[in-house]
Amino acid sequence: QVRLAESGGGLVQAGGSLRLSCVATGSTFTFDDMGWYRQAPGKQRELVASITAAGARIYGDSVKGRFTIIRETRENTVYLQMNSLKSEDTGVYYCAARLGDRPPFAAAECNYWGQGTQVTVSS
Length: 123
What we know:
single chain; 50% strand
């Protein structure tokens, strides 16, 4: 059974940094596309970043220049380096993965999801 496990969330002050990790276990194949979504209380889920097995990246407009997505393709592992965090970055961050890599990294096309990790940025 394929599972995605996130880690690295926590409480940080505005301007600080966090690094999230997502490890996929139980798969015998390499995901074509992996990435992160987030959801803040009372808001819709939004794309944070995605990266294909070939290294093509997509970032949400609100995180461009501050977040970096990194992938270890053979290990089906993806990281999200978050710098210059703002209070509006607070939310639950979900790792997702899919087979197929045609843009965009649509949530409806993601085959697998993690349970989520909480990120709280205090102002």
